[in-house]
Amino acid sequence: MSRPEDTLAADIHYNDSEARKYTTSSRIQNIQASMTRRALEILDLKSPSLILDVGCGSGLSGEILTAERPEDGGPHTWIGMDVSPSMLDVALQRDVQGDLLLADMGQGVPFRPGAFDAAISISAVQWLCNAEASDTSPAGRLARFFDGLYASLRRGARAVCQFYPKNDQQKTMITRAAVRAGFGAGLLEDDPNTKNVKLYLVLTVGGSAGDGRGGDITGVVDGMDNVDVLDSRPKAADDKSGKGAIKKGSKAWIVHKKEQMERKGKVVKTTSKYTGRKRRVAF
């Protein structure tokens, strides 16, 4: 089955007819509600909170946040952002209770630092893995999103992103971008090895060095049940001086520079076995 993100940008795919079809489908409503409740269970919020809904669409997840019972920590206040004007128009027609913002998450998360207590994203992050123009890259879009999301969450907050990776390469690309942004990260799989498998990226904004964790952001996720801890942050290579410096001009140095450029949205050449190899002297 073809994936919509492989053919069109999200704001084009979710036009007026697709937005209405998506919102009125009882099957989609049930799936969306189930995944949103699972995300809330993982967030484990103890009191009414301000939640960012990334890729909020027509507000199906937002309705679950608003309806959360007091004994479960709710009801919650939420702000939704989405790139599709048609989806947001349907949300307005349905008179959802959250505030709505038209914005492309691949260009960042435009809120003040520390504004939110938590964040959720249901079936949206995989759209960032497709470049929409020659001057953008999936790595750059992912970096801008996770950098902005990290900044918008208060210290100690959690975010849960349910997504459908196309393959293991996409899954790795997404999780590495989250870790590089500073998140403690873990992957949670529901119904593994079935066609109904659901993948959740569990993210935490770590505490300070004085909170007993020594500043180890992955320590926050480490205690959660059934979550595989991820930490793909690059470790500096040890040199003879013991300072862990990377030699300028080496392959590791070149790869590091490429990663920096990708995070800025630049298009760079693919790393290969020839990267960093010195040319022979021509006579």
Automatic annotation (TrEMBL):
Cited CDD domains = AdoMet_MTases (cd02440)
Q: Name one GO cellular component term.
A: cytoplasm
| Residue span, Methyltransferase domain | 51-131
Q: Which UniProt keywords apply?
A: Cytoplasm, Methyltransferase, Nucleus, S-adenosyl-L-methionine, Transferase
Coiled coil regions, renumbered to chain:
none
* One GO BP annotation of this record: rRNA (guanine-N7)-methylation
Q: Which Pfam families match?
A: Methyltransf_25, WBS_methylT
Question: Which GO molecular function entries does the Swiss-Prot or TrEMBL record give?
Answer: rRNA (guanine) methyltransferase activity
Query: Taking every annotated instance into account, which residue ranges of this chain make up the domain 18S rRNA (guanine(1575)-N(7))-methyltransferase Bud23 C-terminal?
Result: 211-280
Q: Where in the cell is it found?
A: Cytoplasm; Nucleus
Regarding protein family, the annotation reads:
Belongs to the class I-like SAM-binding methyltransferase superfamily. BUD23/WBSCR22 family.
Task: Output the PANTHER family linked to this UniProt entry.
Answer: 18S RRNA (GUANINE-N(7))-METHYLTRANSFERASE-RELATED, METHYLTRANSFERASE-RELATED
Q: What is this protein called?
A: Methyltransferase domain-containing protein
Q: Please report the organism this UniProt entry assigns to the protein.
A: Sodiomyces alkalinus (strain CBS 110278 / VKM F-3762 / F11) (Alkaliphilic filamentous fungus)
